[in-house]
Amino acid sequence: MSSASHIRSYNLFGETAELADVLHVETIRSRSALHDWQLKAHRHTRLHQLLFLTSGSGEAEIDGRAEPIPQGSFVNIPRGVVHGYDFAPQTRGWVVTLTSDLLDHCIHPGEGLRAPLEQAAVLPLPAALRNLAEHLFDEYHRQDFARAQVLRSLAGALIALAARAIFEADSANQPLAGSPLFNRFEAMIERDFRSRRPLAEYARELAISPTHLNRISHRSAGQSASRLINERMLREARRMLIYTNLTAAQIAYDLGFSDPAHFSRVFAKGTGLPPKVFRQTVSETR
Hints:
By secondary structure, the chain is an alpha+beta fold. The protein contains 12 helices and 9 strands. The chain has helices at residues 28-32, 100-106, 114-117, 127-140, 147-169, 180-192, 199-206, 210-221, 225-243, 248-254, 260-271, 275-285, and strands at 24-27, 38-42, 47-55, 58-62, 65-69, 73-77, 83-87, 92-99, 121-124. Strands 1-8-3-6-9 form a 5-stranded antiparallel sheet. A 4-stranded antiparallel sheet has the order 2-7-4-5, with no helix packed on it. α4 (127-140) runs antiparallel to α5 and α10 (248-254) crosses α11 (260-271). The longest helix has 23 residues, at 147-169.
């Protein structure tokens, strides 16, 4: 169990905007070999990462669960997701890092890409996606005319193919309609999940009724709007219990609860375990 009072948040490239370039592409080896092929659990506040493993193998830790990464896999890590890696020596592949701004620029509302891209995933690497990642790596290390435009265009194709692979691997995604209202609702949840806003306030900001918001949520995600809000809070609570030494009460206050006992009841109902038992159980398996 980490002794940190907060989850480690990496600013990989030392820039205020987190990336000095249009994006960043590096080999798996370039960073992990410096750290005995292990990268400790961390997260990026404004960066989205795609890892492409072409030879060798590894294991990813994603929000506290272990995921094997066999040869010929890709890993999708949305912003805010806690992740770490343990690679076999001499593992080969690339890591592509995109800012949230570039991702937002590439994704058009209503096309349904955001939902699959917001899922952390380890999946088989399609040949087309592998070839595109290699092309992106080569272009990144050139200084040819129109380099930035080419990188932006390749990045758009890369995230589209990644979203397609995630979408096709998850049958639950098949009915997604890519509703612009639902996309706005998801962004609001990400912005406000710590404030314990009632559903009616979300609906009011979207200029629709709570009933209509629930209808959109069920159609787009298969869950009620209230459950989506609660699940985002629980996901953050689990991360904080796993990766920090904050007490359950401190976590409760950070997540907008005025009564830690109420937080414990909500957490136990949502996960099946009270916060302290959840933390102890995870510690024993790490």
